[in-house]
Amino acid sequence: MPWAVGSLRLGRAWVAAPDPATLRARWAALAAAEGPERERLFRPTRARTPGAGAAALPGQRAGSTARFTDTPGPRPDPVRILREPFDEQWLLPDQRLIDRARPELWRVLDEHQLFAVESAQPAELLVTAHLPAGRLGRIRPLHRRPGGAEPNLAPGLTHLLGERYGTWVTPEDVLCWILAAGRPGPRGYEVPLTADATRWRAGLELGHRLLSVRLRGARGGEAPRLPGGRRPYVRSALPAWPRELSYDPGSETLTVGGGGGDTAVGTVSPVPAGAWEYEAQGVRVLESWFAARLAHRDPEAEGLDAVGPAQWPQGWTSELLALVTTLALLAELEPERGAFEVGPVLSAAELRVAGVLPVPGWARRPASVLDHQEEGPGGQFALL
């Protein structure tokens, strides 16, 4: 996947939140403020200030390109993003508010797109159908153009693999193979290509299961479920605002407690130990997810960062149950993935003979996908 883009840099935490209602409230507060108070709430950086204009984000029809100090314009509808590993949140898609929004990614964001996100330390790979909008790592779109029209793969790769394995190979097949066979290596996340058609089919079967779980029902798929009819339930209702998260492996119970002397607690079970222990980028996913939802209640939170729901939203509980299921399934698949053997591999020399290597320079750059005018700062249109 030669075309890679650096992480989005938001510049200010308040433009993203775990629920869209919070973003609507933050926008309203910012738009209503004036003068120094708007400046304070905005949190200017060298890249973005209330007095700087910016182009409209591709694909986002709502919003203004005028300077925020002149007119905030209509509030853009929040869009779903991947904020942290396995943490799907929401973002205000207004480039005036984002230090580095990576418009080239927004141009190819549609219902066909998937994003592989490669972190460096430790070398790991995430896959999501939502735009990754945090410091997650290098972003590699599966497709270089909207509509899945051109794969972000080394030119000639799918043709070579199809001939070698005697079958049709799609870009999504290659991504599934990456999930099954990729491993951290001295040069980052490394993916050997098998020379054996049987191992390819086995890798695809495992990879498709991994992809289905990671996408969590996105793109019209079914939400993952634990086998045997098991599923996590809320055994006792969560308090109005929980502050602590703990786990009892004996009873497979997740306790969502009040903390700070509050005796009210909620419980969720069964929560397999694999879900509780599951880590991404060296951090327990469940603890990181929970902490992100408490951020606006931090005593040190100021300005728009402190704006959030007064009580724990019911939707977050549903997301927690779905996340537990996802992590439990991935933990169950990890031994199989760890034991997966690639068999004999295609050598770099074979890839060179087939013309797959070296990858041409144009394949490492975004494709030209401008098929309509894009509005620039102050309502000017970009030259095509």
Question: How would you describe the overall organization of this protein?
Answer:
There is one protein chain. This protein is an alpha+beta fold and 384 residues long. It is 29% helix and 16% strand. The strands form 5 sheets. Strands 1-3-2-6 form a 4-stranded mixed β-sheet. Strands 10-13-12-11 form a 4-stranded antiparallel β-sheet, with no helix packed on it. The chain has a 3-stranded antiparallel β-sheet with strand order 5-4-7. The mean pLDDT is 92.
Give me the Rg, rounded. Answer: 23 Å
Helix content: 25-40%
How is the largest sheet built, in terms of strand order?
Answer: 1-3-2-6
Secondary-structure element series: EHHEEHEEEEHHEEHEEEEHEEHHH
Count of alpha and pi helical runs:
10
Mean pLDDT rating: 92
Q: What is the overall silhouette?
A: flat
Please indicate the percent range of residues in DSSP E strands (runs of 2 or more).
Answer: 15-25%
Q: What is the terminal separation in angstroms?
A: 27 Å
Largest sheet: 4 strands, mixed
Structural class: alpha+beta
Based on DSSP secondary structure assignment, what is the total number of beta strands?
15
Name the poorly predicted regions: none
